[in-house]
Amino acid sequence: MSLPPRKLAIAPMLDWTDRFYRYFARQITKHTWLYTEMVNTGAILHGNQERHLKFDECEHPVALQLGGSERNDLAACAKIAQEWGYDEVNLNVGCPSERVQSGAFGACLMAEPDHVADCLKAMQDQVSIPVTIKHRIGIDDVESYDYLREFVANVAQKSETTVFIVHARNAILKGLSPKENREIPPLKYDYVYRLKAEFPELEILINGGIKTLPDTFTHLQHVDGVMIGREAYHNPYLLANVDAEIYGDDHPVLSREEVIANIMPFVEGCIAEGVPLRHISRHILGLYQGLPGARHWRRQLSDANLLKANQASLISETVKLMEAHLSRRFEQMDEIS
C-alpha cells in the first residue's frame, strides 16, 4: 500500500484520538496521518489488546504511539503493532505528566539519549514498518539548542531512526501540569527549523501551538511536516481542504452533513456492539465550530438525558435541526441585504 508523506498529521492526544475520533477525522481528510492516543506497553502486553489496538481499515495511514522505557517490552509491542496492521509505531518521549514520569518514560527519557536509541533499535529489529519518535526540544531549565541537537544526533546515529516529531517547547517535569506544559514554556520554532537545516537527511515534523492552514504552510517551508493537536479536535472541519491544498488531491470536499452521513453506519455498528453513544458523540462536538447554532449542536449531543437512550438517530436528528437553523439564518441575512 502506497502511503502519503507525513506533510500533515494529527497529534496523539490521550483520551481524544481514539478509534472513534480517528474514523470521524478520516471522513474529512483522506491523506492526513492519524496517531493513536499513547498506549502503555503494559496495557498491550497484559491487557485487552483489541480495546487498545482495534482500528478501522479506513484509518490508514495510522500510527500507534507507545509509552514505555523497557526495550524488550517496546520491541514486543512494536511487533504486535505491525501484526495489527499499523503503518508506523511511534515512541513517546514528550509527555511530561507525573504519572508517566513515575513509569520512567515520556519526556524524562530525553535525559537518556543512549537508552532511547537502544529502545528504538530494539523496536526496529522486530518490524519492517517505520519506527519514529516524538519528543520535546528540552527538559526543565535546559534552554540550549545544543541539547536538542545532541539528543537528535545521538539517537539518529545509534538507532538509525530517521523520523523525528518535535514539540517545539521544553517539558517542565516538576511544577507544571500537562495542560500548563502545552501553554507556558515558550515555543521555539526556530530550534526545529535549525534542526532540519543541520540534518537534511532526517524527516523532521514540527508540533506545538499550530492552529491554521496558513501557519502550516509557513512551517512547511522549513520542515518536512506539521503535526496539529487540539485545534484539529476542537475545530475538525479545518481539515476539509487539506487534501487539496497540501496533498494536491482535488477530490470533492464533503459538507459537514455528508461527513455525518458517512459515519452513521459506523456509529450504528458500534452501538450494536455495546458502545455507549456518548463515547462517539463527544468527538464530533466541534464539527460546526464558528457557525451559527454550534452551541446548540454541542448542547444537544452532550445532553446526558438525550444520550441515555443510546440511539444513533440523535446525531442525524440534530443534523436536521442544524440544517433548518442555518437555512433560517441565511434567509434572514438575504432579507437584510
TrEMBL record:
Site (Interacts with tRNA) residue list: 92, 179, 182, 295, 298
Keyword Phosphoprotein in annotation: no
Annotated Pfam families: Dus
Stored SUPFAM superfamilies: FMN-linked oxidoreductases (SSF51395)
Record keywords: Flavoprotein, FMN, NADP, Oxidoreductase, RNA-binding, tRNA processing, tRNA-binding
EC class of the enzyme, as a word: oxidoreductase
Annotated GO MF terms: tRNA-dihydrouridine20 synthase activity
DUS-like FMN-binding domain span: 10-312
Binding site for FMN: 12-14, 65, 134, 167, 207-209, 229-230
InterPro entries: Aldolase_TIM (IPR013785), DUS-like_FMN-bd (IPR035587), DUS_fam (IPR001269), DusA (IPR004653), tRNA_hU_synthase_CS (IPR018517)
Function: Catalyzes the synthesis of 5,6-dihydrouridine (D), a modified base found in the D-loop of most tRNAs, via the reduction of the C5-C6 double bond in target uridines. Specifically modifies U20 and U20a in tRNAs.
Family statement drawn from the similarity comment of this UniProt entry: Belongs to the Dus family. DusA subfamily.
This protein's name: tRNA-dihydrouridine(20/20a) synthase
Species assigned in the record: Leeia speluncae
The organism's taxonomic lineage, starting at the top: Bacteria, Pseudomonadati, Pseudomonadota, Betaproteobacteria, Neisseriales
Gene expressing this chain: dusA
